[in-house]
Amino acid sequence: MPVYRLLPPALRIPLSVLFFGCSCLQTDTVAEVAETNENLKEVVKLRESLAAEKRVWREQKALMTSQVNLDQTALANLETVLKEFQPELDSLGVAKEILLFDPGNPGNWQNVANLHLRMEHEAEGMSHLEVTHSLGGGSYISRRLLGNMYFNREMVEQSAVEFTEMIKLATKAEELEDVL
């Protein structure tokens, strides 16, 4: 039995086809040539499949590499932001502790509201400003700020109430010039 018959069928290619590109030996039969043709087709399909898998793997690897780079950039940016806001975070912790000891003081609520607004936590800042105003605190500026936040959120009725209170608290005519 020839050695090539021990190979899997997909790899059985007559030597004459490999070396000469065609069958020039008389021992090759039409059946062997057909079998060789089928084997070559299977080899080509297998190699094309492997090449496609390799392309997909490379594309996935490139995608994952770019995602890792984006994640690393986001992490670096987050660390920068955390360092930037660390004083506010520390101050916010202290201010909240003060609120626990003196919750009736509108000034303490105003301080917490200001810290939230500096850290761009608008909803929390608004709620603390509302508490400040409900406790009788608040100023022309805080009423104007809360009125503008309501207006930006299309909360027209609440905005009108705050702007009305703002007008009552204005001490100088110049404060109202840009409002009118």
* 3D shape: elongated
Give the SSE string.
HHHHHHH
DSSP summary, beta strand count: 0
Q: Kindly estimate the percentage of residues that lie in beta strands according to DSSP.
A: under 5%
What's the tally of helices?
7
User: Regions with pLDDT < 50 over 5+ consecutive residues?
Assistant: none
Oligomeric description of these chains: single chain
Structural class: mainly alpha
| Mean pLDDT, all residues | 80
Radius of gyration: 39 Å
Give the N-to-C terminal Cα separation: 105 Å
Indicate the percent of residues in helices. Answer: over 70%
Q: Outline the biggest β-sheet.
A: none
Strand-helix topology:
Blueprint: H1 15-20, H2 30-101, H3 106-118, H4 122-134, H5 140-152, H6 156-169, H7 173-177
Helix pairs in contact: 2-3, 3-4, 4-5, 5-6
Summary keywords:
about 180 residues
Describe the structure.
The chain is elongated. By secondary structure, it is mainly α. Helix 2 packs antiparallel against helix 3, helix 3 packs antiparallel against helix 4 and helix 5 runs antiparallel to helix 6. It starts with 14 loop residues before the first helix and ends with a helix.
